[in-house]
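Annual report, structural modelling task.

Input specification for the S-adenosylmethionine complex:
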Amino acid sequence: MMEQTGKDIATPSRTRDIVEKHGFSFKKSLGQNFLTDTNILHNIIDAADLSEESAAIEIGPGIGALTEQLGRRAGKVVAIEIDQRLLPILAETLAPYPNIEVVHGDVLELNLHKLIEEKLSGFKEISVVANLPYYVTTAILMKLLEERLPLSSIVVMIQKEVADRIAAKPGSKDYGSLSVAAQFYAEAQVAMIVPASVFIPRPNVDSAVIKLKIRDKPAVDVLDEACFFRLVRASFAQRRKTLLNNLQNNLFTKDQKEQIIQVLEQVGIDPARRGETLGLDEYAALTNAFIRAKMLQ
Ligand code: SAM
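The model returned the following structure:
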């Protein structure tokens, strides 16, 4: 484990000093809200269970507040930052940490399989640990999950409202296609709630840290993943409508009403139920039944 080197970046005064020294102006459009509380950073890192033998990928290092803490705990850190103006700042703030590599780029555009192969081969445990830019939270999380990257966990600060949706159980108001998608690939748990006061500048929403422990294989067996997600999205398209209505309107046609009812009954699901009451196992059974009935492919 690396020794602590100098003052932590994550304090309000040090953050202001660094920002002023480099004449940096925050870009709201890039979701730039920097963390200024070292205790919260330690809690985030504890949730990721890092060690010298593990590696971390950070998305959006900002001025390096979380990055330096990751560098002290993990064997190697790769931090992906889109904003070129932050690169010279990071070169300075992270200079004491030879195990941190900053990559300039948009995480949504980068080939992460290749990045892991090139920069983190040899590490058995790789976690994504980040304070995500809130304007692209869902897109980033879905990319990390759907691409089946060799990750053991994803521990990220996001909007509390999105964290609640990800961890929601069937029947609750927050349960939706994002809950199903995240829980298909991972065990989701809200690790802590974080007040807006620990960021500079303050975001105008509450934040939470969510931990996604990636499953070795998806939570349920489906014959075709794309069909499963099409069915799930269609089932939640209009939340107040019944499952039958949503399936008729958003996946099949009105002419197929009788066939839809037949498949629903075959799987033991009442056509009058709403999408938000179905668990992952029921969505999986329904997907497989529609595929076997040659209604989905
Ligand atoms: N990690 C720092 C912290 O906790 O103080 C900064 C977090 S800030 C919420 C989000 C960071 O993500 C910013 O540095 C921003 O420039 C960067 N960012 C925004 N969009 C990005 C993208 N598409 N790819 C990579 N980084 C991005």
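The chain has two domains: 12-214, 225-292.
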